[in-house]
Design a protein that fits this description.
Elements (H helix, E strand, L loop, with lengths): L1 H27 L3 H26 L7 H18 L7 H28 L2 H27 L11 H21 L8 H19 L2
Helix pairs in contact: 1-5, 1-6, 2-3, 2-5, 3-4, 4-5, 6-7
Amino acid sequence: MKNATLKDKVSEKMEAWKKEVEQLKNQLQHNREEAINSFENQKVALGEWTDKMKNEFDRVEEVGEEKAKTLRGNLEDLRVQATLGRMDSADALHEQHKKINQSLHNLKHSVTKMEKEAAGKTKSLLENANQSIEQYQTKFEMYRLQLNDKKEGAVKSWEETKEDVFLRLQKINTKLEEGRDKASDKWEHFSEEMKESWKHLRKAING
């Protein structure tokens, strides 16, 4: 039963990763106007995620009340940014995007610190939250490039970055297809490999 449960969880995770790859591939094809609309839709999804996590984080106390308070404060900051309306100007859009990215960074910092000290269900909750945050960071970093907010000192153009990101997404997809039947047997190893693949993807996006 335990193995069946593990296989179910692995299968669910693999499908979630595949869905993420497809979403990022679609996002790569957006022109600027489509990227703006997608950015707004992603803000809605992010806001819904923060609402869901608020209930989860309200029960996180075992790593210390002060740290839990900081965690919930960072989540609330992110929720506020995600629920702001559509910006009318390029400058306002840039500022909103910048604040969302900073809020994601702050929340990830809190989650990562607490994850190291947590155990059991709390650790599992924080690990899953961390992965979700990284996925949102990946998407919003891509929006930065698509909205022509070029990173200072960037060497590659968006078109060059786009090609590199697409190839890395293809590699992740291949890894998921190849690991479909054997991932549950060596899940920890496979999971670490996937973490590295996502890390390299974000590095490619950030130039």
